[in-house]
Amino acid sequence: MKQFKIVSLFAAGIILVASCAPSVKQTSPQPKGISKAQVDSVSNAIGYSLGMSIKMGNFGDLNMSEVYKGMKDAIEGVELVPQEVNATITDFLDKRNAALAANNVEKGEAFLAKNGKNEGVVTTETGLQYQVVRAGNGVRPSATDTVEVNYEGSTIDGKVFDSSYTRGESVKFCLNQVIPGWSEGLQLIDEGGEITLWIPSGLGYGERGVGETIAPNETLKFRVELIKVIPAVVVEEAK
User: Are residues 158 and 207 in the same domain?
Assistant: First the structure.
């Protein structure tokens, strides 16, 4: 359903933004009372809308001359079957996601094989890798406990995609309601401690990824400070 909405939005965007292409003839002149500044303003807004549609769709680099040609064809009335347009976009996205997933599996496995040899890095039976940066007070959470943490998440290429430090506030969540890599990893550190986690895709977001933020089958790195452990019984009593 999400992909259909993206495809529909993108297809609609191509039609709407056709007026932005420099070589496209306007099929309908603006009525009296509409200024050039107003036309320029809406033209920019439509162009931005299409750009956001492309970004949301995670198409990667595109041939912009062909994008402009598609807009020109739409404005000038070249007839294309909407279902065929959507099929072309959907087929491309399916193939691109499959290629990204395959490439990321290979890249992640190579990274973890090398990273696992570094001093202080431990690899568990599930494939999770971790390194204790700072020991805590001896109190460890169980899988049903709630924890309060500060964290930073990044790809193995170093791209930060989420950070409680940036937002300026810690977060709380139950360990049985997060990705397996987090649930396992946070049980390996004590309250007040800090840990670095390298999470293979199978313990993360897998083939689905997270929109444009986390690609399919991407291996992730998290730096986590465990501020507080809130036992499950305490949470239940507070309800």
Answer: yes
Mutual angle of helices 36-57 and 2-17, in 10-degree steps:
150
Angle, helix 2-17 to helix 64-75, in steps of 10 degrees:
70
Q: What is the phi-psi region of residue 231: left when phi exceeds 0, alpha when psi lies from -120 to 50, beta otherwise?
A: beta
Catalytic residue among 59, 92, 111, 161: 161
- Identify the segments of the chain with pLDDT beneath 70: 1-27, 233-239
- Is 96 contained in some domain? no
127 in the same domain as 185: yes
| Domain range for 49 | 2-80
DSSP code of 210?
B
Judge whether 221 lies within some domain: yes
Q: How much is the pLDDT for 234?
A: 56
pTM of the model: 0.72
Q: Would residue 48 show up in a list of annotated catalytic residues for this protein? A: no
Residue-wise pLDDT tens digits, 188-229: 999 999 999 999 999 999 988 887 789 899 999 999 999 999
In a domain, 145, yes or no: yes
Residue 92 is among the residues annotated as catalytic for this protein: no
Catalytic-role residue among 151, 189, 190, 214:
151
10 & 56 share domain: yes
Provide the number of structural domains found in the chain: 2
- Quote the pLDDT of residue 233: 66
Q: 15, 46, 179, 227: which one is catalytic?
A: 179
